[in-house]
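User: Modeling request: complex.
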Amino acid sequence: QVQLQQSGPGLVKPSQTLSLTCTVSGGSISSGNYHWGWIRQPAGKGLEWIGHIYTSGSTNYNPSLKSRVTISADTSNNQFSLKLTSVIAADSAVYYCVRDGYNLGFDAFHIWGQGTVVTVSS
Amino acid sequence: DIQMTQSPSSLSASVGDRVTITCRAGQSVSNYLNWYQQKPGKAPKVLIYAASSLYSGIPSRFRGSGSGTDFTLTISSLQPEDFATYYCQQTYSTPYTFGQGTKVDIK
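Assistant: Request completed. Predicted assembly structure:
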């Protein structure tokens, strides 16, 4: 079955760019009709949807982050990535990559990466 | 953005209890409502999608209901492994939004 493996630094300096990658195994990122996305969770707090990229390549971002976020796909490596620019301390969180079940008839996020703890600090 | 409000924020219950968590949307989300369970240090996992459909492998003691703006997650007989935090999420429109969570702990 499809699995998501996250990679990327756990420490980012303020004003710099947070970059995370999610490698997909057990299926192709370019087949089917799915949303491949990112969600974050600050320590002790709730879940925030960051955005997603559709199989077609179209993207949709949370307006609260839109000016700083880019989600892209690398089909040759079966990966998708998150870039968040100009980070501040409030961007510190556990970041999860996710996939929904759109092609299966539902849009809940049923596949999750393991999570990456990102701390923004100098 | 569609605001999702869960109640209660936390509750204490005993094994075998019936537990009900409610989720209210700021506007109608039809049945585009999902429920997740999260345990400490773990990624959330989906329990219910489309308001009332049980995800594969989830025990039948979990039940979702509602449509429009008012939704309910019911655990018919709480088991030790059910102590966790539960979130509702709307996927009716972007940005997808979550409730603030309901923590279920042991009485």
